[in-house]
Amino acid sequence: MVSWEIIHKAMEFIAEEMGVALKKSSMSPNIRERMDHSCAIMDPMGNLVTQAEHIPVHLGSFRIGVRNLLDYMNKEGLNIEEGDVIVLNDPYISGTHLNDVMMVSPIYCSDKLVGYAVNKAHHVDVGGPVPGSINPNATTLYEEGLIIPPTYLMEKGKLNRDVLDLILSNFKSPYTSIGDLNAQIAANRLGILRVSQLIDKYGLESVRRGWEESIT
């Protein structure tokens, strides 16, 4: 039987490695230099399994944000399948401001959902009337920038080009934004890979037991 501490520490390093990949792959100084990004792994119910030592406001919002997302998907009759990537920045779902673009990717093992790889990253601009999308004169959310509800950026591993084009057409630094969005996708892919490798090494039940101990 594998000690839960081994699983717990392995999961911590997975979240940290996701953050390193996101930082090094990004194009904007907000992420590459200021490190305004965060990564985590959640269980299928939206419980926080592990998170890296990144931005506190992001980390504190992950559990609420993912649960809100799952509630939204359930109400809309939508599923998150293997290879999907959900993108959103709606503060009433994700829990932070519009600049914090959130990505959620499911982790599957033998066709079973075992969890989610999640990250948030502060984009340099998400539209709106002012540079940087931090509008001091805004009295409504609509004056701050583009509001992205939970949307399939990728479906079953295939990029949804229409969604990407819509986002980039509204973000005022599209060449920077495409790099950061790709970095977020890559970070989640790395998280999925590392969790899958952990399951291959120790078995799904051992990993699940370790997660349960970490959560409680």
UniProtKB/TrEMBL annotation:
GO terms for cellular component: cytosol. One of its GO terms (biological process) is glutathione metabolic process. This is 5-oxoprolinase. It comes from the Archaea. InterPro entries: Hydantoinase_B, Oxoprolinase-like. GO terms for molecular function: 5-oxoprolinase (ATP-hydrolyzing) activity. Transmembrane segments: none annotated. Residues 2-214 form the Hydantoinase B/oxoprolinase domain. It comes from Candidatus Acidianus copahuensis.
